[in-house]
Amino acid sequence: MDPCDKAHTDEIRAYLDTLTAAPAFAASVRKARLLRYLVERKLAGEGDKINEYAMGLDVFDRPASFDPRIESVVRNEVSRLRQRLKEYYSADGQADRIVIELPLRSYAASITFREAVPTPVEAPQEEGAVRAKPRREWRTAAIVLGIALALVVALAGALAIGRIKIPPKDLVNSMVVLPFENLSPNHADEYLADGLTAELTNELGQWKDLRVVARTSAFEFKGKGMDVREVGRRLNVEAALEGSLAKQGDRVRIMAQLYRTANGYRLWSQSFEAKPEDVMAVEQQIARSITATIRNLGGNVPDHVTSAPTTNPEAMDLYLQASYQYAQLTPESLKTSLVLFHQATEKDPSFARAYLGIAAAELESSFLTSRPPEEGVERVRAALQRVLDADPNSGDAHGLLAEIAVGYDWNWPLAEGEFQLALAKGAEVSLRAVYGWNLASRGRFSEGQNQCRAAEGSDPLGIAPRFCQFWVYYFQRDYSEAKNTLVRTLEIKPDLIYAHELLGWIAALEHDCEETTSQFQWIAQKHPMPVAKIGLAFASACRGDRERARQYLKEAAGSTADVSPYQLASGYAFLHDREAAMSYLQKSAASHESQILWLKYDPVFEEMRSDRRYIAIEKMVGLQP
User: Fold this and answer.
1) Any idea what the Cα angle at residue 433 is, between residues 208 and 508, rounded to 5°?
2) Cα torsion for 441, 442, 447, 448, to the nearest 10°?
3) What letter would DSSP give residue 69?
4) SS3 label, residue 143
5) What are the 10-residue block averages of pLDDT along the chain, 625 residues in total?
6) Angle at 263 (CA atoms; ends 262, 265), nearest 5 degrees
7) Do the beta carbons of residue 423 and residue 398 sit within 8 Å?
8) Which residues pair with residue 247 across a beta bridge?
9) Hey, is 248 helix, strand or coil?
10) pTM of model > 0.85
11) Residue 452 and residue 465 in contact, taking contact as beta carbons nearer than 8 Å
12) Euclidean distance between CA atoms 431 and 302, whole angstroms
C-alpha cells in the first residue's frame, strides 16, 4: 500500500494534526513544524529532494547566507525528531494506525499503515465550516476573527463545564497567548496569524480573574519554538495558549492548544476549519455563545465579551493589516498603517477601533520622527471623539487623551485624571509606563517607579516598562541603572534606535567619547536621521572639537527631515552655548514637543536652571507651580 496515494493523503494529514497535538510534539513548536514539513514534502512526492539548506530557510527561518556545513541546527533537530518519533511509537503511539519514521541518513519520511488497530478516541473537534462562493481575500480576515472568538468560547466553555479537569488548588490564574504560527504557503498572510493572536489576547484579557501577559512580551517568542515550560518560567505564567494557522485556497484551518507551563501537560486542544459563507452571521452566533459561556464561569468576569468590532469584512481585513504595520514601529510602517486605518474607516465609518488606531499611529509617528505634534493633534482629537462616541468606556481612548493633555495642552491635573480613568477602564498596560515616566518628570520618582513595575508585571519583556524605568533612573542621575536598563532592552531588540540614542546621550554626559561616537555612528549608518547628526555633535564636543560639533548641529537644523528643537537645544547646551540652547528650548515649547517635559530634571541643562527664561518655560509647560 502506497501511503502517498491520493486515497490516503487526507487520512495522513488528519493523523498529522493529531500527532503534532500530542504532548510529545506539541510542547515544541519547532519539532511539530519540522515534522509537518517533512511529511508534506513526502506527500508531494519530493521526499528525495529535501536538503539541509532548504530546511534551514523554510523551517528554521535562517537567512539566505545559511551554510549547513558550518551550522548544524538542521542535523541536530532532525536527529532529535527521529528519536522522539521512536519514543512515541514505543509508548503512546503503539496503537496508532499510521506510523511515521525518519530512516537513518535520510530526510525522506517513511509512512506506513498498520492493519486492524483500534481507532483512538480523538479530542473534541469544533468546526465552523460553512459553504460559500469565495470571491475576495478579505473574507479570510473575518473568518480569522470569528475563529478567534470561537477559540475563546471553546476555552471558556471547557473551563466552565469541566472539559479541562483542574483541581481547585491548580486553577489557572495567569497565561500567555503565544503568537500563532503561520503555516500558509503565502507569507503575506502573516498579518492574519498575528491578528488572531491579538484578538485572543484582547478577549481573554477582559477576565478580571485572569492575568494575561501583554502582546508585546508574547511576541518576543515568535518563531523561536521555545518549550512552553521555559516560556512559563520567563513570563511567570501558569498556562500558555499556542497554535497555528494555515490558509489554503478558500479554507482556513486553525489548531490551538492550552498547556500547563509547570510540566508541559496539555490541558485542552481544538481545531477549527472554515470556508467563507455568511461570515457575519457566524460571527454574531459566536459572539452570543461567548457571552453565555463567560457568564457561566462566575466570579469577576465581564457581563459580555466584545464580538466583531465591525460588520464589514473588508474593513476588518484592512484593520488587521494596519495593526501589523503599526507593530513594526518604524517611520515607514507607521505611515502605511495610517493609510490602512483610514481605508478601514472609509469601509466602515463607525469602526471605533480603526479610529483608535489612527490616533495611536499619529502620536507614535510624531514622537518617532520628531514631527511637530500640532500637525496631527487635531486629527488625533477628532479620531478619539469618534471612538468615545461609539464607546464612552474605552480605556485606550482616555489613555491617549491623557497623553494629549500632558504633552500638548500641558494640563497636568486633567492628564492625571485621564490616566487614572483610563487605567480603571482597562487601558493597555503600556499606559502605566507612560504615566510612570510622566510622574518621574515631575519629581514623583517613587510613584513613577511603582507604575513602571506594575507595567512590567503584565509585560515582562516589553519595551515600554523598560523605558519607563530608564527615565526614573535618568532623572535621578542614576546613570549606572539607566544604562543597565537600556542594555537589557537591547538584548530584546538589538536594533532599537531610541535605546542606542539614549546610551550615546549618557555616554556623553559621562565624557565617554568613544562610546558616544560608537552609538551615534551606528545610528547614522542604520538610519540617517537628524538625531544622528546631533549625537555626532555630542561626540565631537566630547573630544574637544567644538567647530565640528557646531557644523553637525548646523547640518541637523538644516535637514529636510523633521528635527527636534529640544535635541538641538541639548546639543548646544553640551557646547555651553546658553543663548542658542535657550532659543531652541523656546522653539520646542512653542511647537509643543513632548520632550520639553523632560526639562525640569534633564541633567543636560543643569547650568541653565537659574536662568529666568528657563524657569519661565518650566512654568509655561506646567512643570512649575
Assistant:
1) 160
2) -10
3) T
4) helix
5) 59 82 72 86 83 83 77 82 83 83 83 60 38 47 64 59 48 82 77 81 74 88 85 89 77 76 76 48 35 38 60 85 87 91 94 93 77 75 93 91 91 95 89 95 95 92 93 96 94 88 94 94 86 92 94 90 89 95 95 90 94 95 83
6) 115
7) no
8) 252
9) strand
10) no
11) yes
12) 21
271 three-state secondary structure: strand
Cβ atoms of 276 and 266 closer than 8 Å: no
CA 191 to chain centre: 12
Q: Are the C-beta atoms of 234 and 460 separated by less than 8 Å?
A: yes
The answer to whether the beta carbons of residues 261 and 27 sit under 8 Å apart is: no
CB 214 within 8 A of CB 208: no
Report residue 345 as a C-alpha cell.
474607516
Using alpha carbons, select from 375, 385, 327, 332 the residue that is nearest to residue 355. 385
Q: Among candidates 34, 58, 160, which has minimal Cα distance to 107?
A: 34
What does each C-alpha distance from 67 to 41, 64, 76, 107, 461 come to in angstroms?
22, 9, 14, 17, 31
Please state the φ and ψ torsions of residue 450, each to the nearest 5 degrees: -60, -40
Query: From its phi and psi, is residue 511 left (phi > 0), alpha (psi between -120 and 50) or beta?
Result: left
Give the integer Cα–Cα distance in Å for 441 and 436.
9
Is there a contact between 327 and 320 (Cβ–Cβ < 8 Å)?
no
- Residue 203's nearest CA partner among 236, 241, 235 is 241
Rounded Cα gap, residues 484 and 493, in angstroms: 14
Nearest by Cα to 555 from 522, 526, 528: 528
Expressed in percent and rounded to 5, the helix, strand and coil fractions of the chain are 60, 5, 30
How many other CB atoms are found less than 10 A from the CB of residue 453?
15
In whole angstroms, what is the distance from residue 537 CA to residue 568 CA? 10
Alpha-carbon distances of 98 from 19, 113, 123, 487, rounded to whole Å: 10, 5, 17, 50
Q: Looking at this protein, which amino acid is placed at residue 150?
A: A
Which residues are 182's β-sheet partners?
A: 245
Rounded to 10 deg, the angle between the 497-509 and 479-492 helix axes is 160
C-alpha cell at 562: 523633521
CA-based end-to-end distance of the chain: 86
Integer-rounded Cα Rg, in Å, for the chain is 27
| Cell digits of residue 454 | 506594575
Can you read off the three cell numbers belonging to residue 152?
475563546
Contact 27, 228 (CB under 8 A): yes
Helix (H, G, I), strand (E, B) or coil at 98: strand
For 42, residues 6+ apart whose C-beta sits below 8 A from its C-beta are: 4, 108, 109, 111
Cell of 300: 469577576
For the record, the C-alpha cell of 445 comes out as 520618582
- CA dist 503 and 603 (Å) reads 14
C-alpha cell at 182: 503561520
